[in-house]
Amino acid sequence: MAASSSSFSSLSTDPNSIESLRRSRILSSKLYFDIPSSKVPFIYSSSYDISFLGLEKLHPFDSSKWGRVCQFLIEEGSMEKMRVVEPLEASKDDLLVVHSERYLEGLEISAKVAIILEVPQVGMFPNLLVQENVLRPFRKQVGGSVLSGKLAIERGWAINVGGGFHHCSAEQGGGFCTYADITLCIQFSFVRLNISRVMIIDLDAHQGNGHEKDFANDERVYTLDMYNADIYPLDYEARRYINQKVELVSGTGTQDYMAHLDKALEVAKSNFHPELVVYNAGTDILEGDPLGRLEISPEGVALRDEKVFRFAKERNIPLIMLTSGGYMKSSARVIADSLVNLSKKKLIDLG
Fold first, then answer.
1. 203-213 CB burial, b ≥16 within 10 A, e <16
2. N or C: which terminus of the chain carries fewer CB neighbours within 10 A?
3. How open is the CA angle 184-117-290, to the nearest 5 degrees?
4. What count of other Cβ atoms lies within 10 Å of the Cβ of residue 270?
5. Domain containing 77: what range?
């Protein structure tokens, strides 16, 4: 049983009841819906972008990067706006698949949201405003992450331009991550897609402690996490649950990074045979990123993404990409350029 079963502790201590309720919520969810073939498996909504009286500028995360990625692709003719898939917003019942009532009730207190976002000023605002201007965009991105599982199985790949909130677990948010979208995506995949083996490849500069706690000791999920071990979250408990851990040091450059990645992917290939890959593709590995503290060039980011997509495609494994962290204005441009490169290499088709 996954560690995330603890999210139902307030409802029942019977594992069968917990799983039955989880399954019921997943089967009744509207987050999965049919996508016409005229659309590409590229998921985005203008609702992703956060604008909250300028407070979003008090955190180094670029909360408008998602929209700028799409703008670059559309303006340059790499993709047509009408072909983008818009997800639904995750409902409370959807979130309860992983989170507890207690955790979600905590998000109704602005001060608690402020701690998760690391923006103290948010705590001074009525929660209604916080819900609408901050948490609703996150819930929309959660819907995108969940839907990406269905699309990846159907089309071979899917990209959610948002999501990747890998510091949030069933019972605890942090690091600008309020909902456990990776855990939700995988739980939906188990039930709705009838798969039983998922690999998480987390290449954000920070350790993905949220999903690691949620899938602790769950043999259906294999985690490869390559991160800067010198920085947040320094979650040593969660590190015990990583199947394949690659710990980097601050200042690691592009050449060393690629050598570590090549070796890691070879080991992962031998250790686990997934039916779905969830790729958490943070751009906070970029040189100059104030929080990631690694030194990977923009070209290196594109090569990293290409290596992961090849890893999946050569084994005919559907892949989900989530954009996760990135704390410089240049991140949006780098992501867009990487997606264009993937299209040129015929690893995706933005059509």
1. bbbbbbbbbbb
2. N
3. 105
4. 7
5. 3-28+41-100+136-344
The total number of structural domains that make up the chain: 1
Q: Is residue 108 part of a domain?
A: no
Q: Which of 114, 135, 137 is nearest to 124 (CA)?
A: 114
Q: CA-CA distance, 30 to 252, in Å (whole number)? A: 43
Q: How far is CA 122 from CA 127, 141, 172, in A?
A: 9, 20, 18
Residue 220: inside a domain: yes
Does the residue 224 lie in any domain? yes
Is 105 inside a domain boundary?
A: no
Q: Which residues have C-beta within 8 Å of that of residue 102, sequence separation ≥ 6? A: 10, 171
Chain-centre distance for alpha carbon 222: 16
* Tens of pLDDT, residues 124-154: 999 999 999 999 999 999 999 999 999 999 9
Assign residue 150 a region (left: φ > 0; alpha: ψ between -120 and 50; beta: otherwise): alpha
Neighbours of 120 (CB within 10 A): 12
Q: Which residues are catalytic?
A: 167
Report pLDDT digits (tens) over 301-347. Answer: 999 999 999 999 999 999 999 999 998 999 999 999 999 999 999 99
Contact 326, 62 (CB under 8 A): yes
CATH number at residue 264: 3.40.800.20
> What is the C-alpha separation between 136 and 2, in angstroms, rounded?
27
What are φ and ψ of residue 226, in 5° steps? -115, 115
Beta-sheet strands, E only, within the chain: 42-43, 157-160, 198-202, 221-228, 244-248, 276-280, 319-322
